[in-house]
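Regression report. Comparing outputs from two consecutive submissions.

Submission 1:
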Amino acid sequence: MPFVYASCRVWNVSRWQRNDAGKKVNRIFHPREEWVIIPDSHPAIIKMEQTEQAEQAEQAYQNMQKNNPNTHKRRMGQRAKYLLARLPNCEHCGHNLQIKYNKKNGEAYYCCGYRRLSQANCNNRRRYNQDLIEDTVMEMINEFLLQEGYIEDQLHQQLELVEKQKQESKVEIEQLTGEKKEIESRIDTSLELLVDGRVAKERIIIKMQQDEQRLRDLQNRIIKQEEIKAPTAEDLQVFRNQLRSKVEGELDIDTKKSVLNSIVKKMGVNQDGLVEIDFCVALGNTP
């Protein structure tokens, strides 16, 4: 707003739209004829003619941006929308890659967020085209998760893991069951003492409450161990079908981001643009 430098105070320039939570999300500027300009409010540092020229230049730039189809339109206060938010890391320094927009050509790219704070933080000067990186990630999901091969290997590994866990679980269930019987016996004894009246009621109740809580904890641990089961080919197919509907369907970007965050354990991008992903594929019910 250049008018402030020409000794003017300007009112009624804009207003804010708020969401249901009362947060400002969109600033709406009023037409020039609705502004209230009060001149000579303080000492000027530029002339009014210069102010008008600066305002006209700003309006011309804004009109050009509106007519540019490559311009990324984003409301003030609105979070940037990009598919890989918080997922890719710079393999040089380990920090997150962040999105950045080139206002001149309307292009968007990922770059090292740590280097953006200071060039001394990281030597990775690469800028990765947003569409190229995101398309690469989606192609890797298609190759490794939607096509046969990778998940089948994961299924075989999980079958071996579950079999080992079942053996360990069997031993643990026996130990937990034995401890559970001891606590149940103590609770029965406490009830007898409570009825007999030979011991202070308050002491018995406190001890019983502690034993009952421990009993519930043991029961939950036993149930958790008993629920361990090996994944099946049906589990694999269900996972693949659900994933395909999420990443290939016409869904909003927030839904796709949620899916990516659930299946990507780690993602790194090196200076040559090579993307490495450690997928997290959970089939069946394993602890």
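Submission 2:
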Amino acid sequence: MVSPTTMAAVRASGAVPKAEYLLAVEGVRKEFPGVVALDDVSFRLKRGTVHALMGENGAGKSTLMKILAGIYTPDKGEVKFKGVDIRLKSPLDALENGIAMIHQELNLMPFMTVAENIWIRREPLTRFGFVDHGEMNRKTANLFKRLNIALDPQAEVRDLSIANRQMVEIAKAVSYESDVLIMDEPTSALTEREVAHLFTIIRDLRSQGIGIVYITHKMNELFEIADEFSVFHDGKYIGTHASTDVTHDDIIKMMVGREITQMFPKEEVPIGDVVLSVKDLCLKDVFHDVSFDVRLAKSSAWQVLSAPVVRMWRKHCSA
């Protein structure tokens, strides 16, 4: 087992071990009181690839990534980074090993500048021991140029949009010279244009040899940005495939454990007598000539309507 300090020194020297996989997880198990979050899970990330994690809520994706980010410690199993066994005890351990995670809930200080957020705890100092803001802003500008991010290093984070805060988080992770970036639902609050910019940055990072783990629920993103994907279901590893080798239906079957045709199985429901009949119902400027029957023991489509609409229908039907 190699300590984070030793691994950091090895990385700094450039004498990194050669391994088929940049990151490898074998037989990991994690339990919480009354819940097995991960059960004998495996995962492998290649250098210079985008690897998407897919699965329903509670499948274990975020738990595994929090283990790789040093937030959780596995109860069993091993994690290898560039072929070397590592044990991560904190997020700082992960960063020192070259693994950075960009959380869905952004972790930035709103009343600090962009540059101050990126270099927090690593600020360049003057010869008198004070923070060298000029050098810090220059380093930030160079980082943004590398990533094609158009932001002012001296802007306060509270004045930025969600999309631009996401860019700051990415820049911060890259500033650690990380070999692995973990992105948890990075497009959840982004517009289509902002997503396109994010994907441009991801492709550029991939071309630099960085391995990217991409957690998403959006199927279209998998096919657009991911090279490979792994599926988890109820805390278990289901399988890994190239994104070019599968269809939407294949992925859904792996995620839910059944054929897509079985997602909404038809049920035989007995149709009873009419208990409410509405004919040619009108409400000025809202609807007109609406007719329907409600039968005994039959579900009403009102269940899917919004609460205000339901209240409106009930009011006029009762009248």
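Expected: both submissions complete independently.
Actual: both completed, but the second showed a warning that disappeared on reload.
Relevant detail on submission 2: The radius of gyration is 26 Å.
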